[in-house]
Specification:
The complex is a heterodimer of chains A (296) and B (384).
Chain A (H helix, E strand, L loop, with lengths): L27 H12 L3 E6 L2 H5 L12 E4 L4 H14 L6 E7 H6 L2 H10 L4 E6 L36 H6 L5 E6 L3 H13 L4 E6 L3 H4 L6 H10 L6 E4 L3 E4 L8 H5 L12 H21 L1
Parallel strand pairs in A: 1-2, 1-3, 3-4, 4-6, 5-6
Antiparallel strand pairs in A: 5-7, 7-8
Chain B lengths: L1 E5 H11 L4 E3 L7 H12 L6 E3 L4 H13 L4 E5 L1 H6 L1 H9 L5 E6 L13 H4 L7 E4 L3 H18 L3 E6 L7 E5 L3 H7 L16 E2 L8 H30 L6 E4 L6 E5 L3 H14 L4 E6 L1 E3 L3 H8 L4 E6 L9 H10 L7 E6 L9 H13 L8 E2 L5
Parallel strand pairs in B: 2-3, 2-4, 4-5, 5-7, 6-7, 11-12, 11-14, 14-15, 15-16
Antiparallel strand pairs in B: 1-8, 6-13, 10-12
Helix pairs in contact in B: 1-2, 1-7, 3-5, 7-9, 10-13, 11-12
The chains are: A alpha/beta (296), B alpha/beta (384).
Chain lengths: 296, 384
């Protein structure tokens, strides 16, 4: 499959156990399981407010088997830096630090601290699970919500009128040593990227796509299929950016029409005539832009 | 070794002597020279620490709190708007029971813009679960930083050390800087019972639902109750080691005083001069400088002020709609006391206005000549 060596099957140790509170079909626990699988037990996680912070147990039970530190909404970026600094001060260079946030904690309220950590090139991995709205508070628009989507704050009469913020470009512009997109529909590629991030010194940003059955209004068994469709329609391309300039495509998409991706999702039910074509045009334009960077 | 040092410089040396392992701070006047001096101390290797030059105060505290959870001795410093920007993280740090030590150089909060001293920044944060110790001199600021780490790491609550912006932060004074060996024997390395460690994985700050949340808060209150005893004991131990102690309050000529002035910070130094001058004229006045504001030393203050007929409270802050914050705290503390002095309230020195010997003389004279307060705080030096 695309020449990628299968790596996921050998990963048997479990670090995110059952008992977490995620909704049925949520892709985010799969994102985190994959991340923890790939990193192994010698890992410390900073977790910000958002879906993952909420689902990861209630005192005194925790489903997370690695040490984890919950930190307020804007501060995942800073907490990652603090934990790394403490380990360095103690001479521990083996333990990997990850900070985990959703699109709110990454694109919006958290971006200042992440930008700071990226600019300082602090040595840890930032994981964003993007479910394209504030899902934990009940489906309010974020700057990661796509154009034309319904949310509880972008009602049918006033659908999201702005395109999604290009977070990968923002992070690449910080000259971070390693920025990559990853999808739960491509676990081998996902694991390879997490391991590459672990081996790379400096700031790493892994941007993952996390379909949300509740917020996107689709049947819960479709999450992985939608994640794959997002890649194959070029809506969520899988690629890497090294040192802010070397772009590599990870998976060649088939170029399925975006309507295939939009149709199963109730959040796109309010699109008007011509809107689907407009989305397709935007996706094609963004893809061309990405290809120009690949070939630069 | 005796040196001529500003308050900020004395504090920086104190942090170095305490062997802080992770420091993170964002510059803000008048705290900035602490950030600068600690950067140099770390850069030239006098202190083996990580200095994280963050992009905001919110990140500064988020960063050192997380580092503290990972087992490091940590320090940060700020002022005014920086402290306000940390507000969420202040609650979070005490809630996580992390022994973070912070210095806040007291400065007014806008609007209008003002960079000069008053206590409204730190008193606005009185309910965030931090111990608050207000200093009067550069020596006391250095000594209190050393005490603060010992207190924080024993009771697992964060400590805020307060110094008056400019009056203390930027004014030079002779400071006896302790020897490294002496500080090492007073303050052992930080060894937390729980920390972020792959050998013993725990989830910190997990959701506590309504059946448990109140228990966490009750535990923190117990720790704050314990902190009061620990602060007293650490101060006595410090005196044994270094020959200097400060107490919960600094009391001057209280035994036979009819009128006692109660205040915090450097205004006490000015007040001391006035007390001496008044005593020479045969006027029985005294001074109580409140050093420990959180936990509030209710019983102790009741005991030392119990015999005074009148107490004049000089607040360098104001809570709109309620009055001076120290005065309110004092009134609450004395409510259950058998002997209650009449309390006169004065607001002065906001936004760096000098509190002069004349102001303090006026406060003593007003209090002496009136049988009871007229109900509202008196604002000093309002221009007509």
């Amino acid at each position: 499959m695309n020449g990628i060596e299968p790596q996921a099957k050998e990963l048997l140790d479990e670090y995110l156990h059952s008992g977490h509170g995620a909704c049925p079909g949520c892709a985010m626990p799969v994102v985190l399981r994959t991340v923890f699988h790939a990193l192994g037990g010698k890992t410390i996680a900073a977790i910000t407010a958002g879906c993952f912070g909420t689902i990861s147990g209630t005192y005194p039970a925790s489903p997370i088997k690695i040490p984890a530190y919950n930190t307020p909404f804007p501060s995942a970026g800073a907490a990652g830096s603090g934990i790394r600094a403490a380990l360095d001060a103690k001479g521990d260079t083996e333990t990997t630090v990850v900070a985990v946030a959703g699109d709110g904690g990454t694109f919006d309220i958290g971006i200042q601290a992440i930008s700071g950590a990226a600019e300082r090139n602090d040595d840890y991995i930032f994981i964003c699970y993007d479910n394209e709205a504030y899902m934990n508070t009940g489906i309010q628009r974020s700057s990661a919500t796509p154009w034309g989507a319904w949310t509880t704050t972008t009602p049918p009469s006033e659908l999201k009128a702005q395109p999604k913020k290009d977070i990968v470009q923002i992070m690449a512009a910080h000259h971070a040593p390693y920025v990559a997109t990853a999808s739960v529909a491509y676990p081998d590629d996902f694991v390879r990227k997490i391991r590459k991030a672990k081996e790379t010194r400096g700031f790493k940003f892994i941007y993952t796509f996390s379909p949300c059955p509740v917020g996107w209004r689709f049947p819960s068994e479709m999450s992985i299929r939608l994640a794959r469709l997002a890649v194959q329609t070029k809506i969520f391309p899988l690629y890497e950016v090294e040192d802010g300039e070397r772009y590599t495509l990870s998976v060649e998409p088939e170029g399925i029409p975006v309507s295939e991706y939009l149709r199963p999702q109730g959040r796109f039910n309010f699109l008007r005539e011509g809107d689907r074509e407009r989305i397709q045009e935007n996706v094609d334009r963004e893809w061309e832009r990405l290809m120009r960077r690949m070939n630069a | 070794m005796k040196k001529l040092l500003t308050g900020n410089s004395a504090i920086s040396l104190g942090v170095m002597l305490c062997r802080a392992e992770v420091i993170s701070a964002y510059p803000i006047t008048p705290q900035t020279t602490i950030v600068e001096e600690l950067s140099e101390i770390v850069a030239d290797g006098r202190l083996k620490a990580r200095f994280i030059r963050v992009e905001s105060e919110h990140s500064a505290l988020a960063c050192v709190a997380a580092a503290s959870a990972a087992g490091a001795r940590v320090f940060t410093a700020t002022s005014s708007h920086g402290l306000a920007y940390m507000h969420e993280m202040l609650h979070w740090t005490s809630g996580t029971r992390l022994p973070v030590v912070m210095v806040n150089a007291n400065r007014a909060i806008g609007s209008p813009w003002n960079i000069w001293c008053d206590h409204s920044d730190s008193l606005s944060q009185r309910d965030t679960g931090w111990i608050q110790l207000y200093c009067q001199s550069a020596q006391e600021a250095l000594d209190t930083v050393i005490q603060a780490f010992k207190i924080a790491e024993e009771v697992l609550l964060p400590v805020m050390v307060l110094e008056d912006g400019f009056f203390l932060s930027h004014t030079s004074d002779v400071v006896d800087v302790p020897e490294q060996k002496a500080v090492d024997s007073f303050l052992p390395p930080f060894k937390p019972r729980f920390k972020l460690s792959p050998e013993e994985p725990h989830t910190f700050n997990i959701m506590a639902d309504p059946s448990m949340f109140i228990n966490f808060k009750h535990d923190a209150q117990q720790a704050m109750n314990q902190a009061k005893k620990v602060i007293g004991r650490v101060d006595r131990e410090f005196k044994t080691h270094f020959g200097r102690g400060y107490g919960y309050t600094g009391n001057v000529r209280l035994t036979d005083a009819d009128v006692v002035l109660l205040t915090m910070g450097t205004a006490a130094s000015t007040a001391l001069e006035v007390v001496d001058a008044f005593r020479k004229q045969g006027k029985k006045v005294g001074l109580c400088r409140l050093r420990m504001f959180r936990p509030f030393p209710s019983e102790e203050v009741g005991r030392v002020l119990g015999k005074a007929k009148k107490v004049a409270v000089l607040d360098r802050d104001n809570s709109l709609g309620a009055g001076g914050i120290v005065a309110q705290e004092l009134k609450a503390a004395l409510y259950g006391a058998v002997q209650k002095p009449r309390i006169f309230e004065f607001i002065a020195g906001l936004g760096g206005r000098d509190i002069t010997p004349q102001d303090i003389g006026e406060i003593f004279n007003y209090t002496k000549s009136h049988s009871s307060p007229n109900g509202a705080p008196i604002w000093m030096g309002i221009k007509k």
